[in-house]
Amino acid sequence: GRVACNFEHAFSDGLVWSRYFHEVYCDLLGKPSGYTALAQLPAVDSTAEVPNASKLQWVIDDVHGQVATTVKNAAEVIDRLSASVYHSAAPIPYGKKAIKTFGVSPDAFCQAAFHLSYYRLHGRLAPTYESCSTARFFHGRTETIRTATLPMYAVVLREADFAAARAGTISATTRDELRSLVEAAAKAHVTLAKDASNGQGIDRHLLALREMARELEAPAALAFFNEHVYEFSGTWLMSTSNVSQSFGDWFNFGPVVGDGYGVGYNIMDDAAHASVSTFKAVARSSASALSEQILQAADDLAAVLRPPQ
């Protein structure tokens, strides 16, 4: 059998639900989850009187009618939203096992494929968000991994050479150059990911400063936050999230800007499943086109990174 889950992102993150399903999955199989078990809570006698407690008297008018109306309205909104978003699958044939033989981080490999694909479709590097959990901190939720780095830009600028590598029409010297570029982009990506996970990212810090500037009406600070470069750098034309679990298959969410892409992906041992979404009404973005390019870009990167036979 299969199970699907849809959750509201405003108050919860994918990592929380992923952990929950992991625990349930392991419990069903009767095997340890790999996490420390919670302390056994004492039993509670539901019939015993609770001291200093009094029964609450609720007076609610027409609660059933209100709930029914709210559910009906929510269903209509969900139907409209679902109908407006197009999803396309990109089953990348390289998983953790293969990518590790390439000598780069599996997550960095996938991000390089996404960037190479976007560049081929739109001729530019996209401001890209990758979610990073900060759950190690009390009340921690997420930080941003900004994957559109200068080393990544150096990779996409050579997109024609990567295509030639897949076709087998480049020299060994050019292949080594391309490999060095991907390795540098992957190294930068891993560093940014570690920094974000350790609370050393910039976006949550800047968010707090922006809200303080608005509250204090500080002109100099507001001028910085209103700069076009700053605003565009946070216009996530690609919003991505890696939620990899052995029991997972596909994972996705909608784009966060009108002409953007949502890319949820799950890196398994033998494959990586990326699911791409776009708004149907926006002609500039195409989920199916990006999915097709992702598969080609992954082959291009593999052709450069794969150890010689």
Helix and strand content put the structural class at alpha/beta
Helical stretch count?
11
Please tell me the overall pLDDT.
Answer: 91
- Tertiary shape: globular
Strand/helix succession? HHEHHEEHHHHHHEEEH
Gap between N and C termini, in Å? Answer: 40 Å
Strand content: 5-15%
Low-confidence stretches: none
Number of strands: 6
Report strand order across the widest sheet.
1-6-5-4-2-3
Structural notes for this entry:
- The structure is a single chain.
- With 309 residues, the chain is an alpha/beta fold.
- It has helices spanning 14-29, 63-84, 96-101, 106-122, 150-156, 159-167, 172-197, 203-216, 219-225, 228-233, 287-305; strands at residues 85-92, 128-133, 142-146, 238-242, 261-267, 272-279.
- It has a six-stranded mixed sheet with strand order 1-6-5-4-2-3.
- α4 packs across α5, α4 packs across α7 and α4 (106-122) packs across α11 (287-305).
- The longest helix is centred in the middle third of the chain and has 26 residues, at 172-197.
- The radius of gyration is 23 Å and the shape is globular.
